[in-house]
């Protein structure tokens, strides 16, 4: 809290005078993949409103490859996890923001660090999202914004971003998300799937960065068995990173290997959209891959688990959301994300039958190809 007080006292001396012209804009979105994808409507609307401005995006390094596939940014500023804590780190980013010399900053990330950094860097106009969950320091830090909108957990985060942009005179914001991929990715996917012929493809995300949401091997096996038994012309594409190869191999040991396609670690993150767009249906939890599939308008089933579906959810017309009715749901929110089940059962994931998940996906499939 002390550094927030320092910034409030220093503001009259560090704030740059505004020329009135917006030449450089800094956007802060340091969340993980799902947060990045859900913020793409804001990125797109901001670029449309300021076509000649230099737009710099401060982001988590994992999202850099995704950002480079979008035509909205002139520069990326990578903010690794753990580099916002402590005086030394904060002053490093203050100096970096001063170097960028933005006329305007929009912050989509929570916490007390960014209000301090942007204020001490002298950014003339600083717009922030005030989280619906705030600690004492973060609450005090909200005084450092020149303007802010309060996030309402009963409304989609996209509507919060739309209200933030409205402060700049942006009147209409389309809420559909967007992802891209390198031109060469489609040929790579084509070669990878070459042996599948005309088989229908179901994508199954087999892991989650937040283990609270993860399906687990038993449920994954149950989903796969149901899909393979019900749709003889269907193959399953296992989706994950290099660290998921062992889990994919374990699934393959108990299933029809000829109809199981392990893509874990085969594609870089920016190539994944090219693979996703080949799917007939996608199954996952509330994660980055699910929001990428949503952006591509892929029919999908999302097992929402502990997450607040009022503030963030797939919105395409062929998205099915499965969520148990439990008194502890939701416990996971955009600005308050637990990583362990407080009652120890993970009932919101464990108690959803694998057959229910698989059947929801089967219902989304188009008829078999002739």
Structural description of this entry:
The chain has 370 residues and is an alpha/beta fold. The protein folds into two domains: 2-166, Rossmann fold (3-Layer(aba) Sandwich); 185-364, 3-Layer(aba) Sandwich (Rossmann fold). Helix content is 35%, strand content 16%. It has 14 helices and twelve strands. Strands 3-2-1-4-5-6 form a six-stranded parallel β-sheet, with helices on both faces. A six-stranded parallel β-sheet has the order 9-8-7-10-11-12, sandwiched between helices. The chain is elongated. 40% of the residues are buried.
Helical residue percent band:
25-40%
Provide the number of structural domains.
2
Regions with little confidence, pLDDT below 50 for 5+ residues: none
Order of helices and strands: HEHEHEHEHEHEHHEHEHEHEHEEHH
Comma- or semicolon-separated keywords:
Rossmann fold, alpha/beta, 12 strands, 2 domains, six-stranded parallel beta sheet, about 15% strand, single chain, about 375 residues, 14 helices
Brief overview:
This protein is of the alpha/beta class and 370 residues long. The chain is built from 14 helices and 12 strands.
Topology:
Layout: H1 2-14, E1 24-29, H2 33-49, E2 54-59, H3 64-67, E3 75-78, H4 87-100, E4 104-107, H5 113-120, E5 125-130, H6 136-141, E6 147-150, H7 157-166, H8 185-192, E7 200-205, H9 217-230, E8 234-239, H10 245-253, E9 260-262, H11 272-276, E10 281-285, H12 288-295, E11 300-303, E12 319-322, H13 347-350, H14 354-364
Parallel strand pairs: 1-2, 1-4, 2-3, 4-5, 5-6, 7-8, 7-10, 8-9, 10-11, 11-12
Helix pairs in contact: 1-5, 2-7, 2-12, 4-5, 9-14
